[in-house]
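User: For my dataset I need records formatted as: sequence, then C-alpha cells, nothing else. Please produce one.
Assistant:
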Amino acid sequence: MQTTSQDNSNAIVIEDNALPAAKCDECGAKIYPGSLLQPHITRHQRRQRWFVKELRKLQYTMAHMRDLA
C-alpha cells in the first residue's frame, strides 16, 4: 500500500526501486520513461483538436436546423 507522500512524488516505485517519471500537467498522469511525455501531450492535443472539430460540426448542424424552423 502506498502512502500519500508517495502519491505526490515524481517517481514510480517498482519493486522498491524509485524510477524517475514525468508528470503530465494536463491529466496528472505519471509517465515513465520521461521521454514518453511528449507523445502523451501530443495525444491530448490531438484529442482536443478532434473535440473542437466535432463541436463545430454540431454547431453548424444546429444553426441550420434553426434556420429551417
